[in-house]
UniProtKB/TrEMBL annotation:
Residues 2-242 form the Glutamine amidotransferase type-2 domain. This is Class II glutamine amidotransferase. Keywords: Glutamine amidotransferase. It comes from the Bacteria. The keyword Mitochondrion does not apply. Pfam families: GATase_4. Gene3D superfamilies: Glutamine Phosphoribosylpyrophosphate, subunit 1, domain 1 (3.60.20.10). InterPro entries: EgtC-like (IPR026869), Gamma-glu_amide_hydrolase (IPR052373), GATase_2_dom (IPR017932), Ntn_hydrolases_N (IPR029055).
Length: 277
């Protein structure tokens, strides 16, 4: 599987988020604690919002822990909204176009999990992608296909419903092919102003996902940490696994939910797939 994180809040250098925490995403690329695989070395990617309409994107096929270009970039790029991912392939090729996050216009998308027996379901799912969107698909992963199905079903207008329709379709196609428990996912997507994060699996035993405690509460819990005074109240993180062991800093995202982060407001809604009509 994979590990990922989202940061939203005060502009920070990427290295402050990717490298400096005790159990940073770079550390998780070698020493994941809660993932299916300890090592996530089948490529990585970073997407960030800053100057311009389209988010920046840097992806590579090597392991994140040894990529000098990533380290150099992280020391010089600052962003108020960052999505980062380290990959452990579930069977598709290790190539740049299969590295997360995936981008379409202002939208970024990344995924941890899999579609069971993807090779069996792939053709039917591909045919459901909008013909105008299809040429923009570059890779061969189930994760990118999930993204383009969500775009087909209205991600740009109503992300929760679009993802619900996407999952509903995957489960319906899997049922026709007698594939049990097809969906396993934690997904993050953003348009540059709002972040949506989903934790769902058909068997209701989803991969780990956590969100950070609000900064004001953390300042009260840990007045001894100066860095907490430098981050704005609206700063938030969503992570596959905690970036350290600071007491009170992390909370588990509930099973079968959609979390929304926008301007420091945190909302968590129940998530249910929507089967095709």
């Amino acid at each position: 599987m994979c590990r990922w994180l989202v940061y939203s809040g005060s502009p920070l250098l990427l290295e402050e988020i990717l490298y400096k925490p005790v159990h940073s995403l770079i550390d998780q690329s070698r020493h994941a604690r809660l993932g299916v695989d300890t090592t996530n070395g089948d490529g990585f990617g970073v997407g960030w919002y800053g100057v311009g309409e389209v988010p920046g994107l840097f992806r590579a096929v090597g392991p994140a822990w040894s990529d000098r270009n990533l380290h150099e970039l992280a020391a010089h790029v600052s962003s108020p909204l960052l999505l980062a991912h380290v990959r452990s392939s579930t069977g598709t090729a290790v190539q740049q176009t299969n590295c997360h996050p995936f981008r379409f216009g202002r939208w970024l998308w990344m995924h941890n999990g899999s579609i069971a027996r993807f090779a069996t379901l792939k053709r039917d799912l591909m045919l459901a992608v909008d013909a105008e969107l299809f040429p923009a698909m570059e890779g061969s992963t189930d994760s990118e296909l999930m993204f383009f199905l969500a775009l087909t079903f209205g991600l740009r207008d109503d992300p929760p419903r679009a993802v619900a329709r996407m999952v509903g379709l995957v489960e319906a196609v899997a049922s026709r092919h007698q594939v049990a428990e097809p969906v396993q996912m934690t997904v993050a997507t953003s348009d540059g102003s709002t972040v949506w994060a989903f934790r769902y699996s058909t068997r209701h035993e989803s991969r780990s996902l956590f969100y950070s405690t609000e900064i004001r509460s953390l300042r009260l819990l840990h007045p001894e940490i100066p860095a907490l005074r430098l981050i704005s109240d609206e700063s938030r993180m969503i992570v596959s696994e905690p970036l350290g062991d600071l007491p009170g800093a992390w909370n588990e995202v509930p099973e079968s939910t959609c979390s929304v982060v926008a301007g420091g407001e945190d909302l968590i809604h129940a998530f249910h797939p929507e089967p095709p009509a």
